[in-house]
Amino acid sequence: MLPLEFARCYFDSIAESALDLAPIHLTELRADDLRTVARFPDTGARNVIPDPSSALSFLVGDLLARKLGCEAAMEAASREKPLGTCRFSMVGAGFSYVADRPTADPESPEPLYEPLLMFGAILEIDDPTVIPEHTSSYKDLCWTAPGDYAEGVRTKRIESFNPKFLDLADEADSDTVTVCARGLCLQTTHKVLADLGSAADGSAGGTSV
Questions:
Q1: Measured CA distances, 48 to 41, 81, 158 (Å)
Q2: SS3 letters for the chain?
Q3: 62 confidence band (pLDDT: 50, 70, 90)
Q4: CB-hemisphere CA count at 13 Å for 148?
């Protein structure tokens, strides 16, 4: 997730390999609405992780190590014995909810949004157990079926993303649990999964990405 001024140069470097480029003006977008700017073919290059010569592989490896508790696995991995592969799937644009700004009426805060380009990538890990259930950044990580995830995005029901969430909410004070169910990051993942499903089903109009 990158602010537009930073994402533009990054997008330019990968646009040549994209399919279905669709220029979009910010005035066409609505709040919480993700619009596809570009798709990438499923035959496109797959980068192994780790690979410091690939910007995407470097970013994915950085997130795996810093946020998802895979620092030991990343340290032991190499190009010859990688953790897996990653590739771009799509780029989307939209306004994403940031926070609420207080108003004269405490019960009616003003929602604030920012324009973002979302880069959707597919990460395929050879051994998913390298991601622990608890990390310094997140706890109670779990794997969610694509269908449950799609339902969670549609209904904004957090327990569809993580079945453990309701138990955590019951155990914690209300001020200690913060959840976002309307971010463009969730919509980007949902869009990537939907496109993959259309390609696998051979649906009319489906695009392999």
A1: 17, 9, 32
A2: CEEHHHHHHHHHHHHHHCECCCCCCHHHCCECCCEEEEECCCCCCCEEECCCCCHHHHHHHHHHHHCCCCHHHHHHCCCCCCCEEEEEEEEEEEEEEEEEECCCCCCCCEEEEEEEEEEEEEEEECCHHHCCCECCCCECCCCCCHHHHHHHHHHCCHHHCCCCHHHHHHHCCHHHCCCCCCCHHHHHHHHHHHHHHHHHHCCCCCCCC
A3: very high
A4: 10
- Give me the pLDDT at residue 105, please: 92
For residues 53-69, give the mean pLDDT.
92
What backbone torsions phi and psi does residue 155 show, to the nearest 5 degrees?
-100, -10
Q: Tell me if 109 sits within 8 A of 78, measured CB to CB.
A: no
Query: In this predicted model, what pLDDT tens digit does every residue of 94-146 receive, in sequence order?
Result: 888 888 899 999 889 998 888 888 899 999 999 999 999 889 888 778 888 88
Phi, psi of 193 (to 5 degrees): -65, -40
